[in-house]
Write a structure and sequence with these properties.
Blueprint lengths: L5 E2 L9 E2 L14 H11 L27 E6 L1 H7 L13 E9 L5 H18 L10 H10 L8
Length: 157
């Protein structure tokens, strides 16, 4: 279940709760038990939490993308692309060159509970069967936008 938080399935009496995200956090904040108790309270709007016992708490940063979709697939050879196709910064869409044997599966954000198994399968099929990943999670989509809008590339435009 997912609303402003995630509630995993009950597996052997353990239910995993996942928190929402905060944008633009520059410094990691240590976990506090109070945060976990607030999460349990939020979960009560989705499930019966009267007999839930807090077992373990994990906190950390998680990666998300600008468009909130994961990144799964081959990694673009950025220096090669910028040097060989400088017009990519002005909207050109050349054929991509990728770094050999380098892949990414990241940016699952707050929906990692839901997306991770499917993204892992897509990545495995990409690596083992050379199958193309769904365009909605292909890293190429963000590379082309980054090339057109990145202030660091103004000199190439």
């Amino acid at each position: 279940m997912h609303q402003s938080m995630s509630v995993g399935a009950n597996i052997d009496g353990i239910i995993k709760l996942g928190a929402t995200h905060e944008k633009e956090v520059k410094e990691p904040i240590l976990c506090q038990e109070g945060q976990a108790l607030l999460l349990k309270e939020k979960a009560s709007s989705l499930i019966d939490t009267s007999d839930l016992e807090l077992k373990e708490v994990f906190c950390g940063m998680r990666a998300g993308s600008k468009d909130y979709f994961p990144l799964v697939g081959k990694v673009i050879d950025v220096p090669f692309m910028l040097e060989t196709y400088p017009t990519v910064t002005r909207g050109a869409k050349p054929e991509m060159k990728y770094v050999d044997n380098l892949f990414v599966c990241n940016g699952l954000g707050g929906r990692g509970f839901v997306f991770a198994p499917l993204m892992a399968r897509m990545l495995a099929e990409c690596i083992v069967e050379d199958k193309e990943v769904d365009v909605r999670v292909d890293p190429d989509r963000l590379f082309l936008k980054w090339c057109r809008k990145s202030p660091e590339l103004d000199a190439l435009r």
